[in-house]
Write a structure and sequence with these properties.
Layout: H1 18-40, H2 44-54, H3 59-66, H4 70-77, H5 86-95, H6 99-115, H7 121-139
Helix pairs in contact: 3-4, 5-6
Length: 140
């Protein structure tokens, strides 16, 4: 009995309608914008966790290098406890990360802890931003 060759179907190439392509590119742009916002809204704890994980360190290893307890580091990474500002320079050197980035996140966490329960927090922050801009303009 002759053997029959198995037919393999050639996969169809995907074709997109021009309108679908435009919608897809708009959605990708939207996702990019969301990604950028997400990066900017990262907390110090999230940044520390990201740096630690990217370096392949365990919490206990980083805690030892910072001279703090593992449980305390866990709370820092979960934004339940503040890290001392002095520890930022250790983190900067250890992970070769700009101190300005860490300092900004540290300060943002401090400001947030002060205003988080205030009804007029956003208004107050906008006023503070304008005051900072005025001060910088005046000193320039």
């Amino acid at each position: 009995m002759p053997t029959r060759k198995a037919r393999t179907k050639k996969p169809k190439e995907l074709e997109f309608h021009p309108r679908s392509t435009r919608i897809l590119s708009n959605n990708l742009l939207f996702l990019t914008k969301l990604g950028q916002v997400q990066i900017k809204t990262m907390t110090l704890g999230q940044k520390i966790r990201e740096l630690r994980e990217n370096a392949g360190l365990k919490q206990r290893e980083l805690a030892y290098q910072l001279g703090i307890g593992e449980g305390f580091l866990s709370k820092v990474e979960n934004d339940q406890k503040p890290l001392k500002r002095d520890d930022l320079s250790k983190l900067s050197k250890l992970f070769k990360t700009p101190i300005d980035e860490l300092d900004s996140l540290w300060l943002a966490n401090k400001v947030y802890s002060i205003v988080r329960d205030e009804e007029s927090a956003l208004t107050a922050l906008k006023v503070a931003e304008e005051q900072l801009k005025y001060k910088n303009f005046k000193n320039a």
